[in-house]
Specification:
Blueprint: E1 5-6, E2 13-19, E3 22-28, H1 32-35, E4 46-52, H2 53-69, E5 73-79, H3 88-98, E6 108-113, H4 115-127, E7 134-138, H5 141-147, E8 152-157, E9 160-167, E10 172-175, H6 185-202, H7 204-218, H8 222-242, H9 257-266, H10 273-290, H11 296-308, H12 320-328, E11 340-345, E12 348-352, H13 357-366
Parallel strand pairs: 3-10, 4-5, 4-6, 6-7, 7-10
Antiparallel strand pairs: 1-2, 2-3, 8-9, 11-12
Helix pairs in contact: 4-5, 5-6, 5-8, 6-7, 6-8, 6-10, 7-8, 9-10, 9-12, 10-11, 10-13, 12-13
The structure holds nicotinamide-adenine-dinucleotide and zinc ion.
Zinc ion binds next to helix 10.
Length: 371
């Protein structure tokens, strides 16, 4: 793993990310948003802040002001929040607002928001003038530890989610953990689901540390969050660096997601992504235990940590059969075989495509039980 390093400011870190387009840095620094206006860019550069209406009010206007106060040219372009607006129509509307403002190859797009803004803003940056530089400034825990690293950008289509897109690496990822103070607790928990996932697939010591300290994350202890984010970015960066275009081990990041996506689609998005991943990780761990790959103690620790994060471990009110059927239509299905990412211990996973269907069904069925 490339590792994480302490930065100059207290509780700050940086993590180098290797990508096919070169190495860039993820900076994690409390208070960074307030200092962003003074970043080093040529005086003539147009700064285009892309954000959603919600984040615009909470943090976007302050960021715009800090650029203006530093004498910089800035355009703040916001679109309505929510997956319904993660569309090519929104992208097209942004082109209409950005192109007449004197856009040049050296202009800088700043994607300020959750994973949705990062994906959509990154796609706008990837396609304007065949690619202009962009900064990821993630403001949800999920975007900080997951979506902002790896270079995937794009939008949804009526046929399915994230079907239109491009790989476009940011120039830098700037994370200010203090912005999480305005984030609804349910969104924080969704991000924690991905943190738990990262430790299960790669880091037993990280998992044990999270077991001891997850309350500090839930109570928004900023120094702890900074370290937690740096740790998770390190794991995501190592996985994507080893497999940038998703041919092999990047699939490990889908742990909990094979079951999770099926629950998500079948519930008509009534459950949040984080809740679905939580249920998916419970099902996958139980399945691994049934297959005698994972010991019962480790399985129980996974379930207990998910519960401690305030995420669901049972009580799913969907018919098990419908969820199992939905899994067969997941885009990750290869040659009609569902590939499961299953832990054989905490900190390590393997890919299995030979799981007996009746065990899959019973793992899904178990999610209907109240814990
Ligand atoms: N590119 C990738 O590798 C990748 C990985 C995972 C997810 N994603 C994408 O990310 C999206 C999900 O990301 P998300 O969960 O961050 O959702 P999101 O961007 O929709 O944000 C969730 C909500 O939180 C609000 N919000 C954002 N920051 C806030 C803050 N600091 N305070 C208060 N409210 C705030 C937003 O306005 C929104 O209403 C999906 O579109 C998904 O496809 C991409
Ligand atoms: Zn996820």
């Amino acid at each position: 793993m490339p590792g994480m390093f302490e930065g100059g400011v207290e509780h700050s870190y940086y993590v180098p990310v290797q990508s096919p387009a070169g190495t860039y840095k993820v900076r994690i620094e409390p208070g960074l948003l307030g200092r962003l206006g003074s970043i080093q860019t040529p005086a003539s550069t147009l700064h285009i802040i892309i954000t959603d209406e919600h984040v615009k009010t909470l943090h976007g206007e302050a960021l715009e002001k800090s650029f203006r106060d530093a004498g910089r040219r800035v355009l703040l372009a916001a679109f309505p929040a929510g997956e319904d607006h993660k569309t090519i129509a929104t992208v097209s509307d942004l082109y209409d607002r950005i192109l007449p403002s004197g856009l040049e190859r050296s202009s800088l797009v700043i994607a300020l928001g959750g994973g949705l803004v990062g994906d959509l803003g990154g796609f706008v940056a990837a396609t304007l003038l065949r690619g202009v530089p962009f900064l990821q400034v993630p403001t949800t825990l999920l975007a900080m530890v997951d979506a902002s690293v790896g270079g995937k950008t794009g939008v949804n289509h009526a046929v399915g989610k994230n079907l239109i897109g491009a790989f476009h690496q940011p120039r830098e990822v700037m994370i200010d953990p203090a912005v999480l103070k305005t984030l609804p607790i349910a969104e924080l928990r969704s991000g924690l689901a991905e943190c738990i996932k990262h430790d299960i697939i790669r880091d037993a010591a990280g998992f044990a540390e999270l077991e001891n300290n997850i309350t500090s994350a839930l109570t928004l202890d900023v120094p702890y969050l900074s370290k937690l984010i740096a740790h998770n970015v390190t794991i995501k960066a190592a996985v994507v660096a080893a497999d940038p275009y998703e041919h092999g081990e990047r699939a490990h990041l889908n742990f909990g997601h094979t079951f999770g996506h099926a629950i998500e689609t079948h519930s008509g998005y009534r459950y949040s992504h984080g809740q679905c991943v939580a249920l998916g990780m419970v099902a996958a761990s139980r399945l691994a235990a049934q297959l005698k790959m994972l010991d019962a103690d480790s399985r129980d620790r996974v379930v207990a940590l998910i519960a401690k994060a305030g995420l669901p471990t049972g009580g799913m009110d969907l018919p098990a059969k419908a969820v199992v059927d939905a899994m067969l239509f997941d885009k990750k299905v290869k040659d009609g075989r569902v590939r499961f990412i299953l832990p054989d211990r905490i900190g390590h996973v393997v890919i299995r495509d030979d799981v007996p269907p009746e065990l899959v069904a019973s793992a899904v069925q178990s999610l209907r039980d109240r814990e």
